[in-house]
């Protein structure tokens, strides 16, 4: 009897129970999910169109289905050493400095030694650095150099033979350094500037300038010279010796004591001011000159 009652109650309530309709939120989720899938499909197609359209079919196939031979070929190619690039050996210097038509500008970059130079270099400007020494190796393979400018460094020493192979060198500038003596100078110099150093007379050999038959400009002012350098060449036009410790000169300093007819034609200027010398005491020392030296006469 109880079973029959339960069955009747079940039949009565079953029609009242209905499945709930999908909520608005669920439909939105389903819709969004479908949209995302659709966008992903479009994106993948667009990617293939943009990035794979230009590639050959063989490349696509090789990427998708690599065979053993192609894999071995790729492996072999990857292990083949690449041939070295033919770069300019001096490129690092030309990145550090500025190289332009045979001129190398290495100014104010705090280098402590002469960098490797391009072999075709003719002009080097290495002013205002921290170079302390010049060596024979610095210019051994640079035979075309015509001008070297080391103004404003810390050069104390120059090795013998540093300039021996520079047969074309015309201008050598060593101003504002710490030199105590002069190196052997190349024969074709037209200008030598070593002003504002610490050079004494004993630091200049007796024949240091004798064979420099093309030397026109000599600047040795503001050093520690006690006398005028000997055997100055006939080619000199300008001589700057001011600001030294020169105390005397002789009849052979600029002229020839035994030849009163000798005239020194080329000299245009001799500066001897700011030296402890009274030039008026040595009148015979200037008889061969067209112009008197600049300095104190009384």
UniProtKB/TrEMBL annotation:
| Gene3D superfamilies linked | Ribonuclease Inhibitor
Q: Where are the transmembrane segments?
A: none
Subcellular localization, per the record?
Secreted, Extracellular space, Extracellular matrix
Recorded hits in SUPFAM superfamilies, A to Z, give: L domain-like
Q: Which GO annotations describe the biological process of this protein?
A: articular cartilage development; bone development
Q: Does the keyword Cytoplasm apply?
A: no
Q: Which UniProt keywords apply?
A: Disulfide bond, Extracellular matrix, Glycoprotein, Growth factor, Leucine-rich repeat, Proteoglycan, Repeat, Secreted, Signal
Principal location: secreted
Top-rank taxon of the source lineage equals: Eukaryota
Signal peptide limits: 1-19
Q: Which GO terms describe its cellular component?
A: extracellular matrix
Named from the GO MF annotations, one term is: growth factor activity
Known role = Induces bone formation in conjunction with TGF-beta-1 or TGF-beta-2.
Record-stated family: Belongs to the small leucine-rich proteoglycan (SLRP) family. SLRP class III subfamily.
Q: What is this protein called?
A: Mimecan
- Lineage, highest ranks first: Eukaryota, Metazoa, Chordata, Craniata, Vertebrata
